């Protein structure tokens, strides 16, 4: 598990988006090889595309999502 900041659509927020810190419980690849994160949000489990999320924490600064996947799978 690790934390990320995800962009979430919100019509009430300025500019129509807001950013929310969420915990990622699993990472899966879609049929094209792009990562999707399993998160728990609004009392339901969701798979969200990793392109809408940014990892947080010292160990994940300035590395790509694919490098994060390699760290998780080890």
List keywords for this structure.
74 residues; globular; mainly beta; 1 helix
User: What is the class in the CATH system?
Assistant: Mainly Beta
Q: Could you list the spans in which at least 5 consecutive residues all have pLDDT below 50?
A: none
Describe the biggest sheet? 5 strands, antiparallel
Share of β-strand residues: over 45%
Tell me the CATH topology.
Answer: SH3 type barrels
CATH architecture assignment name: Roll
- The number of strands is 5
Order of helices and strands: EEEEEH
Separation, N- and C-terminal Cα atoms = 13 Å
Number of domains: 1
The best one-word shape is: globular
Q: For the CA atoms, what is the radius of gyration? A: 13 Å
Strand order of the largest sheet: 4-3-2-1-5
Task: State mean pLDDT (0 to 100 scale).
Answer: 78
Describe this structure in words.
This protein is mainly β. It has one domain (2-73): Roll (SH3 type barrels), CATH 2.30.30. Helices cover 12% and strands 50% of the residues. The protein is built from 1 helix and 5 strands, in the order βββββα. The chain has one helix at residues 65-73, and strands at 2-9, 17-29, 35-41, 44-49, 53-55. Strands 4-3-2-1-5 form a 5-stranded antiparallel β-sheet. A hairpin with a 7-residue loop joins β1 and β2. The radius of gyration is 13 Å and the shape is globular. The model has no long low-confidence stretch (mean pLDDT 78).
């Amino acid at each position: 598990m690790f934390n990320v900041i995800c962009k979430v659509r919100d019509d009430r927020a300025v500019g129509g988006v807001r950013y929310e810190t969420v915990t990622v419980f699993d990472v899966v690849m879609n049929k094209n090889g792009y990562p999707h994160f399993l998160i728990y949000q609004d009392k339901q489990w969701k798979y969200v595309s990793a392109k809408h999320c940014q990892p947080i924490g010292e160990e994940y600064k300035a590395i790509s999502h694919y490098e994060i996947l390699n760290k998780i799978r080890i």
